[in-house]
Design brief:
The protein is mainly alpha-helical. It holds the Pfam family Peptidase_M48.
C-alpha cells in the first residue's frame, strides 16, 4: 500500500473511529443524564413526601431536567476535550515537553545523541521532508514516539536507553517506524484521541472530587444534601471511568493495527528486517523493557514504539501487540530468545567518545550512479523511501561543507543560511542585497552570513532544499517577533532585483509552512473539479526551464496526457504568474489523497518532456510537491 492509499485509508479510518467515539460519548451522556435526572427526581420526591416541597411526588423522570443535565454533561466533555486540545495545540513539542524530553537538534551532548540526530536527518532528507525536532527522554527503557498534529509540527522522541543500547542499524529501524507514523496520518489521530478521552475522563475526575467532598460532610440537617452529592459523585465516577475504559478499548484496538503497519513500513524503508527486529528483541532482553517513568506516560501510551506502561487486562487494553508477535511477523525464523542487554543508568549521559565516527555517520561504501533522474520514480517513493534514497541522503550529509552544516544547527546560522540562499549569483547584485540587509540584522547574523557566502556559492543546486530541511528545527526556535522580522528580510531580498523568481517564492512558502505550521483541512476535491488550478500550475511549470514557447507548449501537452480531462491551451505567461499560483496551490492541497498522484505525474511529465531534468526543475518539482503535502524523496539516477 503506497503513501496516497495509506493517507486515504487513514482519512476513512479516522472517520470510522470518530463515529465510534461519538457513539461512545453519546451513550455516556445519555446514561449519565438519565442517572443524574433520576437521582434529582428521587431527591425531589423525597423532599415532597416530607412536606418540604409543594406538589405531589412523581416517580417519572422529568424530561426537561434530564435535558438540562445532558447539556451540562455535554458541556463538561466538550470543555475537557477543548482544554486538552488547547494544551496540545503546539503539536509534538507540547507532548515531548510533557514527557520530560530535552531538545537536542541544536546541542547534542555526546556521540550517541549526534548519531541519533544524524539518523533522523538521513531519514528526513531521504523522505524529502524537513527535519523534525528530536527530544531525548532520560529513561533507561528502550522506547520512542512520534507526535504532532501535522508533519510540520512533528517531533521524534526517544529514550536514553534506546540511543545507548541500540546499534546504528537498529536505531534506524526504530526511526523509520516513527517516520511511518508521521507519513501515514497516525500522529494526528493519536493526538485527537488524547483530547477526546480527556473530556470523558473529566466526568470521572469530577465524580471523584464530589465523593471526597461528601465523605467529609457531617451528619446534620443537611444529611439529604450530602446523600445527593454522594449519589451524583458515585454516578459520575462510575460512568466517567467506564467511558474512559471503553474509549481506551477503541484506542488500543486501533493502535495495535497501526503498529503492525509501521513495522512493515520500517522494513521497506531500511530493507533490513533485522534492524527493527533487533530493536524489539533488545526490549525483551532489557532490564527496564520499554517502560517510561514520566508522570504523564499513561496519557500518551498509544503513541510509543513499544508499550510504555504496565497494563492490567493486557489483552484488551494493550496498545501494542506482544513483542513476540511483532518479531515473528518480521523474522519468521526467530528462535524465541531475547539477548541480554546491559543495564544503564537512566540519568547518566553516555560517555563522550564511546562511538566511532563510522557508527555515528554510518558506512558509505555504496554510492549510487547519478545519471539522468526520474521524477516519476520519486513520486512512487513518496512516503516510502527506499535504501538508495537513504544512501543518497547519507552521502549528501557527509559531503556537506562543515561550515554550512554547523550553521544549520544554530538559530543565527540558520537565519544567515536563508539570507545566503537568496543572494544573487552576480557579485554586484548580491553586494546590493547585503547592503540593504545589513541595518536590519544583528552583528552575529551578519558575521555568519559573510562567513557562509563562499561555501554557499559552491553549494550544488540540488542541495538547496536539503540544507533548508536541516535548518528547519533551528528556525522553529525563533520567537514570533524574530520570525516576523526574518520574513520581512526575506521579502526584501527577493524583491531587491525588481522581480520575484519562482524558486525564491517557493523557498519562502516552505519556510512559512514549516515554521508557522498549517491548519489541517479536510480533503474534499477530485482533480477534475480543480481543472483551472491545474492549468495554472502546469503552465507555469512548463516555462520553468527557461525554454521557448514551442518547447513550453510541448511540455504542457505531455503533462496533459497524464490527466483524466482536457487541459486546453497553455496559459499566457501573465495569466500563470505567482499571483495566480498561490491560490491555485492552496486549493490543490485540498485534493483527496488518491487524486494527488495524477497531478504529480503530470508535473513530472512536464519537466521530463525533453528527456532530462536540470537541478532547478528538480528543486521546483520537490518544492511544489511539499506545498501539496507530498514529500518527494531525492530524484535518484537511472542506472545504465
Amino acid at each position: 500500500m503506497n503513501f496516497f492509499e495509506q493517507q486515504d485509508r487513514a482519512r476513512r479510518h479516522s472517520g470510522r473511529l470518530l463515529m465510534l467515539m461519538v457513539l461512545a460519548v453519546l451513550s455516556l451522556i445519555t446514561l449519565t443524564s438519565l442517572a443524574l435526572g433520576a437521582i434529582w427526581q428521587l431527591f425531589g420526591n423525597h423532599q415532597s413526601s416530607l412536606g418540604l416541597l409543594d406538589g405531589p411526588a412523581s416517580l417519572l423522570p422529568s424530561w426537561p431536567l434530564v435535558g438540562s443535565v445532558a447539556l451540562a454533561v455535554v458541556g463538561v466533555v466538550l470543555l475537557g476535550s477543548l482544554y486538552k486540545q488547547l494544551q496540545l495545540s503546539r503539536g509534538g513539542q507540547a507532548i515531548a515537553e510533557r514527557l520530560g524530553g530535552r531538545l537536542i537538534n541544536l546541542s547534542p551532548q555526546n556521540l550517541e545523541e549526534r548519531r541519533l540526530l544524524n539518523v533522523v536527518e538521513e531519514m528526513a532528507l531521504a523522505s524529502g521532508t524537513s527535519v523534525p525536532a528530536v527530544y531525548v527522554l532520560d529513561d533507561a527503557g528502550i522506547n520512542a514516539f512520534a507526535a504532532g498534529l501535522t508533519p510540520q509540527d512533528a517531533v521524534i522522541g526517544i529514550t536514553r536507553g534506546a540511543i545507548c543500547q541500540l546499534s546504528r542499524d537498529e536505531l534506524q529501524g526504530v526511526i523509520a517506524h516513527e517516520f511511518s507514523h508521521i507519513f501515514h496520518g497516525d500522529m494526528r489521530l493519536n493526538t485527537r484521541l488524547v483530547s477526546v478521552l480527556h473530556g470523558i475522563l473529566l466526568l470521572g475526575l469530577i465524580g471523584g472530587f464530589l465523593l471526597r467532598s461528601s465523605g467529609r460532610g457531617r451528619r446534620s440537617s443537611r444529611e439529604n444534601s450530602v446523600a445527593v452529592v454522594l449519589a451524583i459523585g458515585v454516578t459520575l465516577w462510575v460512568l466517567g471511568y467506564a467511558g474512559t475504559f471503553f474509549g481506551n478499548l477503541i484506542k488500543a484496538a486501533v493502535s495495535r493495527q497501526r503498529e503492525f503497519l509501521a513495522d512493515a513500513s520500517a522494513v521497506q524503508y531500511t530493507r533490513d528486517p533485522e534492524s527493527i527486529a533487533g530493536a524489539l528483541k533488545k526490549i525483551g532482553g532489557n532490564l527496564y523493557g520499554s517502560q517510561l517513568q514520566a508522570g504523564h506516560a499513561a496519557e500518551f501510551s498509544h503513541m510509543y514504539f513499544a508499550a510504555g506502561i504496565s497494563q492490567a487486562l493486557e489483552g484488551m487494553l494493550a496498545t501494542h501487540p506482544p513483542l513476540d508477535q511483532r518479531i515473528r511477523r518480521i523474522t519468521p525464523g526467530w528462535d524465541g530468545r531475547y539477548p541480554q542487554v546491559p543495564a544503564i543508568s537512566a540519568a547518566a549521559p553516555a560517555a563522550e567518545g564511546s562511538d566511532s565516527p563510522a557508527s555515528v555517520f554510518g558506512a558509505s561504501a555504496f554510492v549510487p550512479d547519478l545519471s539522468p533522474a526520474s521524477a516519476s520514480e520519486a513520486i512512487d517513493a513518496i512516503g516510502d523511501p527506499q535504501a538508495p534514497h537513504l544512501v543518497v541522503a547519507r552521502r549528501s550529509l557527509a559531503q556537506l561543507d562543515e561550515a554550512l552544516s554547523a550553521a544549520a544547527h544554530s538559530c543565527n546560522g540558520a537565519e544567515a543560511l536563508l539570507y545566503g540562499l537568496l543572494l544573487d549569483p552576480a557579485e554586484a547584485q548580491s553586494a546590493q542585497q547585503v547592503q540593504l540587509l545589513q541595518p536590519r540584522i544583528s552583528a552575529e547574523v551578519a558575521a555568519q552570513l559573510e562567513h557562509l557566502r563562499a561555501p554557499l556559492r559552491h553549494l550544488p543546486a540540488g542541495m538547496r532544499l536539503p540544507l533548508l530541511d536541516l535548518a528547519m528545527p533551528a528556525l522553529k526556535q525563533l520567537a514570533v517577533d524574530q520570525f516576523a522580522a526574518l520574513k520581512a528580510n526575506l521579502a526584501l531580498l527577493i524583491r531587491a532585483d525588481g522581480r520575484v523568481a519562482l524558486l525564491e517564492w517557493t523557498l519562502l512558502r516552505i519556510v512559512e509552512r514549516n515554521v508557522e505550521g498549517v491548519r489541517a483541512q479536510a480533503s474534499r476535491y477530485a482533480l477534475p473539479e480543480l481543472a483551472a488550478e491545474v492549468l495554472v500550475v502546469l503552465s507555469l511549470l512548463a516555462r520553468a526551464g527557461g525554454v521557448d514557447e514551442a518547447a513550453a507548449q510541448h511540455a504542457f501537452n505531455q503533462a496533459g496526457s497524464e490527466l483524466p480531462f482536457s487541459v486546453g491551451l497553455l496559459l499566457a505567461a501573465d495569466a500563470s504568474g505567482l499571483s495566480a499560483l498561490e491560490p491555485a496551490l492552496r486549493r490543490l492541497s485540498l485534493l483527496r489523497p488518491l487524486q494527488k498522484p495524477q497531478l504529480l505525474k503530470a508535473m513530472a511529465r512536464c519537466i521530463e518532456h525533453d528527456g532530462q531534468i536540470n537541478a532547478a526543475e528538480a528543486e521546483l518539482m520537490r518544492a511544489v510537491a511539499d506545498i501539496l503535502d507530498c514529500p518527494m524523496p531525492p530524484l535518484l539516477a537511472a542506472r545504465g
